[in-house]
Amino acid sequence: MVEPLLSFKNVRAGYGEAVVLDDITFDIPERGSLAVLGRNGVGKSTLLLTLMGFTQLRRGSISWRGADISRLAPHRRALSGIGWVAQEREIFANLTVEENLTVASRPGRWDLPAVFELFPRLKERKLSKGNQLSGGEQQMLATARALMTNPALLLLDEPLEGLAPIIVEELVRGLRKMITEEGTAVILVEQHAEIALSLTEHAVLLERGAIVHRARSADLLKDHATLDRYIGLRVAEGKPAQR
Q1: Which CATH architecture has domain 1-81+152-243?
Q2: pTM for the structure as a whole
Q3: Three-state SS across the chain?
Q4: Domain ranges of the chain
């Protein structure tokens, strides 16, 4: 049996005395992709923060390539090959696009030419400083910067939040190529459920910090009743739309 790239086993975690995640179990294989869906406040971002080591793990284990990393420091997890694009993006405002990309780069498939090919807009703005970019450009930069560390797994937390439709299309195009053509393993937390499901192979739905539904993404995209029940997504004439 092939060892999973990442494995969550009965994870219970939260902040201080508050428990947010309860009995979370899932695996991510090499080159795998998982959409994590649910309403606001159900624990989606906390799942990523727990994976990166920023919450209090109360029970269960997290394994990375067969090794238990449950107590490993966040920076050690990043060095082991886990890339993270936070909601806040956290780019360096006073560095240029090119400097943002090279400051933490590591040898591998993803270098400047590769990320500029993935996001051509960044090449056009390579001499612009981070604080001169639009929100969509900053999101592309945050994603490209994480790729420059050449991670085996990339965590994306609401990458499309608040972006204009034309920028969403451009970013989704880059993510699709990264996932389907390049085979980058991804965990995608996203409110745009129909987009997340179109990009990933598998999906889980969270409710009150627990996984309440698992499915192949293509199957869940057609399961209108389940989507409506857990994330309030109604589907009319085959086109999902948020309530």
Answers
A1: 3-Layer(aba) Sandwich (3.40)
A2: 0.90
A3: CCCCCEEEEEEEEEECCEEEEEEEEEEECCCCEEEEECCCCCCHHHHHHHHHCCCEEEEEEEEECCEECCCCCHHHHHHCCEEEECCCCCCCCCCEHHHHHHCCCCCCCCCHHHHHHHCHHHHHCCCCEHHHCCHHHHHHHHHHHHHCCCCCEEEEECCCCCCCHHHHHHHHHHHHHHHHHCCCEEEEECCCHHHHHHHCCEEEEEECCEEEEEEEHHHHHHCHHHHHHHHCEEEECCEEEEC
A4: 1-81+152-243, 84-151
